[in-house]
Amino acid sequence: MQIKTKTFLAHTCSWCNKHLDKIDLITIDASNVLTHIQCPKKSDIPIIDVGYYTDVVKEYSNL
To answer: How much is the pTM?
Structure first.
């Protein structure tokens, strides 16, 4: 039996609403907000991790 976990992380960049694909490089900040690396509207909130979308979602899916 496989248990599905629900992710509470967004599927879009929180600043410009670009859809995030599994191969996008993204950051997750101290307020658990996802932003893609090339986002022109980034915030100054401290970053806690950088990585590909699928890797970050796996690691932080329980937030």
So the answer is: 0.69
Q: Which helix (H) or strand (E) holds 47?
A: strand 47-52
Q: List the one residue out of 57, 50, 58 whose CA is nearest residue 25.
A: 50
Question: pLDDT band for position 52 (50/70/90)?
Answer: very high
Contact in structure between 25 and 51 (CB atoms under 8 Å): yes
Q: How many domains does the chain have?
A: 1
pLDDT tens for 1-22 read 444 444 456 688 888 989 988 8
Strands, sheet with 47-52, edge to edge from the N-terminal-most edge strand: 34-36, 25-29, 47-52
Q: Quick check: 63 and 7 in contact, CB under 8 A? A: no
In this structure, which amino acid lies at residue 62?
N
